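Q: I'm writing up a methods section and want to include an example of the input and output format. Could you take the sequence below and give the corresponding predicted structure tokens, formatted cleanly so I can copy it straight into the document?
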Amino acid sequence: MARPPINRWDSTPSTLMFDPKNNDKKLIGDGWYKIEDEQALSETIRIIQQQMDYARVEIITGPDNQFFGYIYYPFYLNVPVKVVDERTLYVSTIPPYRSAP
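A: Here is the clean output for your methods example:
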């Protein structure tokens, strides 16, 4: 899941969250948008890399270090994650990137 590519002059995505479908775990959160195709994914990654060349990929883990997925985000952002239940994590929304006027 991720924020979709948005008009560059309005705002741009600042993070991508990957929720693998080959496990019984689930990542949820308000404000995240599903990317349905490879072209949209490539464009979103390109926008993030242009705006934030210091982004990194981290593993999202839950209770007992269980693997839930991945997040691609700028290292300076705090991404709050809360346990909903043993199979579900809530990942808070990250505000979209806005350049200075």
